[in-house]
Design brief:
The protein has 222 residues and is an alpha+beta fold. It folds into 2 domains: 3-90, Orthogonal Bundle (Arc Repressor Mutant, subunit A); 97-220, Arc Repressor Mutant, subunit A (Orthogonal Bundle), CATH 1.10.10.10. It is 40% helix and 15% strand. It is built from 11 helices and 8 strands. The protein has helices spanning 3-7, 11-16, 22-35, 42-48, 55-65, 93-96, 104-116, 121-128, 134-142, 165-170, 182-187, and strands spanning 40-41, 71-76, 79-84, 99-103, 119-120, 146-148, 160-163, 210-214. A 3-stranded antiparallel beta sheet has the order 1-3-2. The protein has a 3-stranded antiparallel beta sheet with strand order 5-7-6. The protein has a two-stranded antiparallel sheet with strand order 4-8. Strand 2 (71-76) and strand 3 form a beta hairpin. Helix 3 crosses helix 5 and helix 7 (104-116) crosses helix 9. The chain is elongated.
Length: 222
């Protein structure tokens, strides 16, 4: 055996560094997403999959393969998850219905954050026209529907609030740009029927009323 033959890597060694076929990568991504209770990012997929794999491309093929099926591949913020097709959600009511009581103030505050993020407490109060209690913000933080954002570069550097991926996942949204318009918000009873004085008028005369957010809430329903 020549020296070149001795030093050259074997075909078996080369195969260890080759990416699996794309069809096999799709199967890997599919398995990971089905086994995960939470949405999975491309970075997390890359860390789990073999060297040289391209989970981003596998996701594109997988999403197309699941189009029109009972389960769809959905993008949620920067992550991906398998979710029941929206038109079949009624079949899952017994398994997924979760009732949460939100005050009118909490619903308005949540809507303002979703539409104006990143937004400070002072800006929320300016839009609503009334003060925001600490309990209202704490409730939304505990539900993990909002989180603290970056501090604003203004005097005092106040903290801002933004919605979370859990919020997007709960309402079946890919990102905040998918939120409904003013017409849908008025239909849900969140806005008054009169034209708003600003871009989004969320002043309510019934701040002490209760509203139920049940399962896929009608609050942001298309």
């Amino acid at each position: 055996m020549s020296e070149d033959e001795t030093n050259s890597p074997s075909p078996e060694a080369d195969s260890l560094f080759e990416a699996p076929p794309m069809g096999e990568q799709e199967r890997m991504v599919e398995a990971i997403l089905f086994a995960s209770a939470e949405p999975v990012s491309v970075k997390e997929l890359t860390e789990r999959m073999p060297h040289g794999a391209d989970p981003a491309e596998a996701l594109v093929h997988l999403r197309k393969r699941y189009e029109g099926r009972g389960v769809n591949l959905c993008r949620i913020g920067d992550a991906w998850a398998m979710r029941t097709a929206t038109d079949l959600g009624f079949l899952m009511q017994r398994e997924t219905v979760e009732t949460r009581k939100l005050s009118r103030a909490a619903i308005e505050t949540l809507a303002i954050i979703a539409y104006h993020q990143p937004v400070t407490r002072a800006e929320i109060e300016e839009i609503r026209g009334v003060s925001v209690s600490r309990g209202t913000v704490d409730q939304l933080l505990e539900m993990e529907w909002i989180r603290f954002g970056r501090r604003k570069m203004t005097p005092g550097r106040p903290v801002t609030f933004v919605v979370t991926s859990e919020f997007l996942d709960h309402f079946g949204l890919e990102n905040a740009r998918d939120l409904p318009g003013l017409k849908e918000l008025r239909a849900a009873g969140l806005l008054e029927n009169r034209p708003p004085p600003g871009a989004l008028d969320l002043v309510s005369e019934e701040n002490d009323g209760d509203a139920a957010v049940e399962g896929q809430s009608e609050l942001f329903e298309d």
